[in-house]
Amino acid sequence: MLRLKSKVGCFDNTGAKLLEVIAPVKQHALNNVYLGRAFIGFVKRASLGKSVQRKQIIKGLLICTRKKHRRPDGSFIQFNQNRAILLKKATKEQLASTKAAKRWATKTEPLGTAITSAIPLELRQKRLKKLVLHAGQVY
């Protein structure tokens, strides 16, 4: 569970190292961001010579949280840090049409080509197939 101004580590090969949450996607800015939800944020720290730069506003997806998450079988899952990956941004042509903008808000195409962290099983059940393909393992 993340709130406004929370800092999240980025675990893909886009070059971003640390992100700061601005607001959840399609929700009020003061709402929390939970496991598997998209958010709008900006890059606090980044590697030189990569596809993203510092202070760039991006769309991210929260893949691991420090807060306990209850699974349907009654067990809990908890990670030692908050982790996120970056998602692709919409082009100007897609944003010109309101229908395409609504469709793009729910799209989850990863920006990087590899995810360096294990992802929880809940993301696989949410039909995020591209994330499962890029991830090393599903936990």
TrEMBL record:
Entry GO terms, CC: mitochondrial large ribosomal subunit
Protein's GO biological process: translation
Pfam families: Ribosomal_L14 (PF00238)
Any GO molecular function: large ribosomal subunit rRNA binding
Keyword Transport in annotation: no
Key words, A-Z: Ribonucleoprotein, Ribosomal protein
Keyword Ribosomal protein in record: yes
Similarity-based family: Belongs to the universal ribosomal protein uL14 family.
PANTHER family according to UniProt: 50S/60S RIBOSOMAL PROTEIN L14/L23, LARGE RIBOSOMAL SUBUNIT PROTEIN UL14M
HAMAP family assigned: Ribosomal_uL14
Protein name: 50S ribosomal protein L14
